[in-house]
Amino acid sequence: MEQESEQLVGTASPQHRASMQRVTRSTRWALCAIPWFFLLSFAEPAESFRQRPVSSLLLRALVVVFVAQAVLATVVLAHRIGHRGPCRGPTATVIVLSCIQIAAILVLHSLDWPADADAVGYYCMLVAAPLAAVLNATSVRAYSASGAAACTFTLVAVAATGSSLRSVLLIALAVAAMWLVIGLTLRSSVWYLSVMWRLDAAREAQGRLAVAEERLRFARDLHDVMGRNLAVIALKGELAARLSEVNNPRAVSEMVEVQRLARQSQSEIRDVVRGYRTTDLASELAGARSVSQAAGIASTIESDPPLGLSSEAKSVLGWAIREGVTNVLRRSDAQNCTIRFAENEGADLLIINDHPHSAGPHAGTGLGGLAQRLTPLGGRLQHGPGPENTYRLVIQLPLPIEQKASS
User: Fold this and answer.
1) Which of 190, 233, 394, 405 has a CA-to-CA distance to 66 between 20 and 30 Å?
2) How far, in Å, are 38, 271, 321 from residue 281 at the CA level?
3) In CATH, which of 3.90.950.20, 3.40.50.300, 3.30.565.10, 3.40.50.1970 is domain 281-407?
């Protein structure tokens, strides 16, 4: 899981990363202590066989096997917390060592082990516990099958010592319960850590997404605000230059208008940065008429906007008028521009101009940003050449249900 967590941790903040790594380390050490806890439980027979030379030698070898099993089980558990899937090499070795341990315990009992048959079952459980911890990384079906095999193997070993049926059944129940508890403990611990890492990464991803959305908003608003203003400033600056060549006093008023637009652009950029930039539909209509007239384009607004539009719909339609008129100025040699509102299944806006450039307005940043504004409201954008050498921009916005009823 830590290999997975290391992939996720790259998206986590340093504070969360440090805290999650501490939790992961503490969980790893707690789980890796399980084999050593059961190893300490085997200390009693070592004392019992200290004065028996035959069995003492075998017991020492058995203790070495127990230690080797604990070391390998620790490696497997550390791998379990750090990776997905079983650690096959050490796992197979632990299984073999477990079989050797149970066989050695039976040999000790047949010699002179001062313990009854129930004690044999107890020590077989001590062998099975680290084995359960090691096999926990397998699938649920494989873990259940290995648990059933361990119970069967332990029962055969205990029955071979002449233990009563009651003792055999109790030991079977104890081994099954131990296998279940170890499995649930390890799996839940690893699952909790995985969920914590994923939640932390999701929290960081959410923050990054918010930053990306804010960047997109800023880029879109900056384009929409400055696109028209710069086009109008360039247009009026060119007009003022031509008027000044013939000493027309109107050149002064045009330069004053350029200055006003520049200051207005500064204010609008500050609003964009703060995220407070909105549009007013009536102001955009008036601005479209004024800009068109300044460019020598005869503009016509054939109908008023539908009544009862929401503030969001008015804002989007305002942006659409601004973008549409900007495209008329920049991508056509228009002499006429018509803005028309209609109310069919929704609020429709149609902007028509003549004499478009050969390529026409392409779906660039402006129209792409306008489509993004329409999407949350369920709106659609269509644009393309029309009849008689015209170009059309069509905006369709669905009306809310309550507004349709009132209409």
Assistant:
1) 190
2) 77, 17, 8
3) 3.30.565.10
